[in-house]
Amino acid sequence: MNSRFPTFLLALCTGLFSTCGATLGVGDAAPKLQPGKWIQGDPVQAFEPGKAYLVEFWATWCGPCRASIPHLNEIASKFKGQGLVVIGQDVWENDESLVEPFVKKMGTNMTYRVALDEKAGSEKGRMAETWMEAAGQNGIPTAFLVDPKGRIAWIGHPMTLEEKVLSQVISGTYDLQKAAADFAEQERRNRVLDAAWRKLRGSIKAKDWDTAESDLVEFAKQLPENDQEGLDRVRLDILFGRKNYDAGFALMGRMADARPEVPMIQNELAWRIVSDPSLEKRDLVLAERLAVRASTLTQDRDPAILDTLARVRLLQGRKDEAIRLQEAAVKFADENARPSLEKTLESYQKGALPKAE
Prior knowledge:
alpha/beta
């Protein structure tokens, strides 16, 4: 995984910009724990003085949540002996019966405590209401770090939590007053960004490309320098919306070459080229280059990437190779992804290109 995920991209993926109406923030006393069934680990009835707690909200259907689990597990293992308790609080779950099998399957990659939300007397869940909703957090994964005095010391995406912050909170050297002030200022900025982002997306949805480009310039002015790269995806939407394919594919190439070591970026871009139904032109040479790069980086064993490369091959008229690659994708897939990949394989064997899912 990319070692640095821009804050802007995390906000777009999880909806962290919107914090309107929040009544809970950094510096406040942490709400009481009100989980439902504990799936794994010893139940935590209340915050124990002298211990720090990392309460992370997640769900089995959430891709970014699954991606952050190994990171959380590393934190739990590294800081366990220093007085940190990590709790994976399931929330907004579509089917709670899936949680326990999911945790068991994760095995040693998910060893920290896990609990369901308490739905008795609460349609959304008690933890969802008193933590997430109260803090104005409407996207997951979101983590709350509680200090040894029971105060919220940090709120954010778990992948952005720095170890030095954990160490300072655990040791009691963390400047909570400054953190609270910084958090309040960031929330103010997020509200401004949220309004600008909604305006930009509205222009794109209306296909008002001139206004969208103007809105993008104004939005970019408000972003920190290290978050600017996230705007390339928006620029790509505008270029493709204008049907300026040559410029769009050139931008895709630059985006991929800027992070050649990250297979998921290569795969994401290649997949869009071969699957986006709105594209009237496809650069299969670029798609092949990116998909091959991604597959090489993953030792030709990642089912999603193999699926992309197989689609590239079929579009190139190389049916036999497409079938071979799709068979490999099926082989390496887990039981959740396998049925869809098998269906695609059947289409390839008939020489047909299925609609991308």
